[in-house]
């Protein structure tokens, strides 16, 4: 057996040695190169940004380049001039003081001594304070490069003494191109879409992308396919979402449920599936405009699939689908039955037309279901003029709440004495099921038909006496008590209504709360009185008099005083038997 050579991970093997090799940080590397060439380099630099984007790598490259004068060997790494300190484990005041003592000694080789302090935000408060003076006025031969992933944790006095460079996340395109270069160097045939999946999984960190690449190559060998990558990384392939979208567009709920069950059986959870579907809808929307094609971060072979499917769907459909998927994402963690939530979302998606409207349920429920369904008889009042066919509503009517006829809020319109004729939906030309949306639409259409305009001058205005008005008032209060609406009935009995003038009923209440309660329900009462008195010109005037409240007994003591005023003997009875309230 031949002796195995030690394996070097790609993140170390292909670590950039010059600024030109650094991926995705062109603005920073160009700035540093110009600063070196023009001798305009600051002595304190702060490199901040996400993990794996090249902060430490750029610090090492900078440390080498500022010491090169053309006389060094090709393999010279200036190890004696570069000092790296991990602030995560060396974060005390003593560690910083030891560093300050070393700074005073000039370099033996080269021009500069470079101190790279990684994870500098881990330094303690006292260590930061001990470092301030040296950082502000370092020796001419010393340069400090601080690196951190959490700039907000560094005290402002440190930030003000450093020249700050913000490293950005590596784009999927740049990461995929660098992975393609490494695959060619290693003689690996890799599909472009497979490299894009690795780059997306790395989430902007080049070091993570290289680690994932090594892992997938160990699994797949020299042939790196999209299928191998998705299996090894446990991510859903693009084809899953393409198939899901096709089933949604075909309104095929059964196959959607089967596809979801198959996906869950592979170890994926519903949250991962619905998030991926939302991202797929977003990518389809990006493909619908030429200017946004650059936002689609996939391989060229998959990009054509996105363009083909995007041509089949309407933008309004995608907006509705994105909203439904986002609602499912927000409610997933709080749901008691998470799988049912995802299934319900898929069913809602499959019941949407291309124009974003809900699809008729007849497409989703077999027609045999309605064959034996009972037809609901609904009496719909129609006005005297013939009913004209109403235009088809563009949106599905909202669900109406069931309200008892007596408790409906009556519109402030004159009431015709004669009741309109009744007609049964069953007599319509087209018989529809009581369970379908057609019956609901038919009912809404009839309810939306406006009554013929009535001149108020033609309505009856018969004279009436105050006694007649009070009698019908009390009858209305009794009806309220029978229906259990005792609070409103009690408010109406607080005062005896009087006629302020020929057409105005006046009532005085003890507080504003009672007035608001009566005003809220006065339309129902006034319609009743108008019909009974046959006078449609009457109105209600309510005033508030807090002095009236004193006439009413609320506490036990007040009730006792009222009783004693009516019968003084009750006080003798209380004292005789020593009774309490």
Short summary:
With 581 residues, the chain is an alpha/beta fold. It is 45% helix and 9% strand. Helix 11 crosses helix 13 (270-286), helix 15 runs antiparallel to helix 16 (338-350) and helix 18 packs antiparallel against helix 19.
List the helices and strands and how they pair.
Elements: H1 10-13, H2 26-37, E1 44-48, H3 55-65, E2 82-86, H4 93-103, E3 113-118, H5 125-136, E4 142-148, H6 156-159, E5 163-166, H7 172-185, E6 189-190, H8 192-202, H9 206-220, E7 223-224, H10 226-233, H11 238-249, H12 253-265, H13 270-286, H14 300-310, H15 315-331, H16 338-350, E8 379-381, E9 422-424, H17 437-448, H18 466-482, H19 486-492, E10 498-501, E11 504-509, H20 512-533, E12 539-544, H21 556-566, H22 569-576
Parallel strand pairs: 1-4, 1-5, 2-3, 3-4, 6-7, 11-12
Antiparallel strand pairs: 8-9, 10-11
Helix pairs in contact: 4-5, 7-8, 8-9, 8-10, 9-10, 11-12, 11-13, 12-16, 13-15, 15-16, 18-19, 18-20
């Amino acid at each position: 057996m031949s002796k195995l050579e030690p394996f070097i991970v790609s993140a170390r093997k292909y670590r950039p040695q010059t600024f030109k090799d650094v991926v995705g940080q062109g603005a920073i590397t160009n700035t540093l190169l110009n600063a070196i060439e023009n001798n305009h380099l600051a002595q304190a630099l702060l490199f901040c940004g996400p993990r794996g984007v090249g902060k430490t790598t750029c610090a090492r490259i900078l440390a080498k380049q500022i010491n090169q004068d053309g006389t060094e060997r090709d393999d010279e790494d200036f190890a004696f001039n570069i000092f790296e300190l991990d602030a995560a484990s060396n974060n005390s005041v003593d560690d910083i003081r030891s560093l300050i003592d070393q700074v005073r000694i000039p370099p033996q080789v080269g021009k500069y001594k470079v101190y790279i302090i990684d994870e500098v935000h881990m330094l303690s408060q006292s260590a930061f304070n001990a470092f301030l003076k040296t950082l502000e006025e370092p020796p001419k031969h010393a340069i400090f490069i601080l690196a951190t992933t959490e700039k907000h944790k560094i005290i402002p006095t440190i930030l003000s003494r450093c020249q700050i460079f913000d490293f950005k996340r590596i784009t999927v395109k740049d990461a995929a191109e660098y992975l393609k270069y490494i695959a060619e160097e290693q003689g690996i045939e890799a599909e472009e879409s497979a490299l894009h999946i690795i780059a997306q999984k790395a989430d902007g960190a080049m070091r993570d992308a290289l680690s994932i690449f090594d892992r997938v190559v160990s699994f797949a060998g020299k042939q790196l396919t999209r299928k191998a990558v998705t299996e090894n990384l446990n991510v859903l392939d693009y084809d899953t979402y393409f198939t899901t979208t096709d089933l949604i567009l075909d309104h095929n709920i059964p196959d959607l449920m089967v596809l979801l069950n198959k996906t869950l059986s592979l170890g994926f959870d519903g949250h991962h599936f619905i998030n991926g579907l939302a991202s797929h809808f977003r990518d389809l929307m990006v493909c619908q405009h030429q200017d946004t094609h650059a936002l689609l971060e996939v391989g060229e072979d998959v990009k054509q699939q996105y363009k083909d499917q995007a041509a089949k769907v309407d933008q309004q459909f995608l907006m509705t689908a994105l909203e439904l998927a986002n609602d499912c994402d927000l409610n997933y963690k709080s749901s008691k039955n998470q799988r049912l939530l995802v299934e319900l979302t898929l069913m809602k998606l499959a019941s949407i037309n291309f124009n974003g409207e809900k699809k008729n349920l007849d497409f989703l429920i077999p027609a045999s279901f309605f064959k034996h369904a009972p037809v609901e008889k609904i009496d719909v009042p129609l006005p005297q003029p013939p009913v004209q066919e109403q235009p088809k509503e563009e949106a599905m009517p909202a669900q109406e709440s069931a309200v008892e006829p007596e408790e409906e809020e009556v519109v402030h319109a004159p009431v015709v004495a004669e009741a309109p004729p009744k007609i049964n939906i069953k007599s319509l030309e087209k018989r529809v099921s009581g369970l379908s949306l057609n019956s609901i639409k038919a009912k809404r259409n009839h309810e939306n038909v406006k009554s013929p305009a009535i001149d108020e001058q033609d309505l009856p205005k018969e004279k009436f006496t105050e006694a007649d008005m009070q009698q019908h008032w009390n009858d209305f209060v009794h009806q309220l008590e029978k229906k259990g609406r005792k609070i409103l009935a009690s408010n109406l009995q607080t005062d005896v209504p009087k006629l302020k003038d020929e057409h105005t009923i006046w009532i005085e209440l003890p507080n504003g709360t009672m007035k608001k309660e009566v005003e809220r329900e006065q339309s129902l009462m006034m319609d009743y009185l108008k019909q009974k008195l046959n006078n449609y010109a009457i109105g209600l005037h309510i005033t508030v008099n807090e002095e009236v409240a004193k006439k009413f007994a609320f506490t036990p003591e007040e009730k006792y005083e009222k009783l004693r005023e009516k019968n003084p003997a009750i006080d003798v009875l209380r004292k005789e038997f020593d009774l309490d309230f």
